[in-house]
Amino acid sequence: MQGALFLHEKIDPISLISALAAFGGLVCVVRPGFLFGYDHPTASTDGSWIAVCSGLLGALSQVFVFLIVRQLKGLNVFVIIHYFTISNVVFASFWIALFQQTMSVSSTSQFWGAVFGCGLFTFLGQSFLTRGFQLEKAGIASVMRYLDVVFVFIWDSVILGEHINHWSVVGAFIIVTCAVLIALRKINMATA
């Protein structure tokens, strides 16, 4: 929707409805306490207001990144990733120096494996995401981004053994359905 607002990209009614429905699915997965209450089996593992606010600020920041990437259609993906990485190093260094002021690093191989794995998958994910936003309208590409939430809660369950709330399953189903609907429409429009 920000793509339509800021970049004047047209969004068809079906894509708009799918985007709104996918956002509704996202709300079901995240389950903010002010909508779903605080008294349920998974309440102890729900995020604090700081986590929720951090997530919202992160999402708002990502909106601007997506809009800027759409403007950089002709630029090589790896040039964008390069400057993204440099910016992260600079801002993280300032953050550590000014606010955190200490940093402890574990020396275990498991820790370093996790660090390198995180770096590798972040690089791959950001590369594909950046290319996707260069090729597709911002509104449609951002709906696909909701799939992140679906994968996170699946991995939380499979790898970390966390309990899945039934609302998360409903939300994941809505998100996946909307993403598939948008993808199928794009395929049909391309072949027509």
Automatic annotation (TrEMBL):
**Sorted UniProt keywords:** Membrane, Transmembrane, Transmembrane helix
Q: Where is it localised?
A: Membrane
The cross-references to Gene3D superfamilies, in alphabetical order and at most eight, read: 1.10.3730.20
Q: Using the record's annotation, list all stretches that form the EamA domain.
A: 50-183
Name the SUPFAM superfamilies for this protein: Multidrug resistance efflux transporter EmrE (SSF103481)
- Name any GO cellular component annotation: membrane
Q: Which residues cross the membrane?
A: 14-36, 48-69, 76-99, 111-130, 142-160, 166-184
- List the InterPro entries hit by this protein, alphabetically: EamA_dom, EmrE-like
Domain of life the protein comes from: Eukaryota
Classification via Pfam families: EamA
Provide the membrane topology annotation: Multi-pass membrane protein
Keyword Transmembrane helix among record annotations = yes
- Provide the protein name: EamA domain-containing protein
Taxonomic source organism: Phytophthora megakarya
Lineage, broadest ranks: Eukaryota, Sar, Stramenopiles, Oomycota, Peronosporomycetes
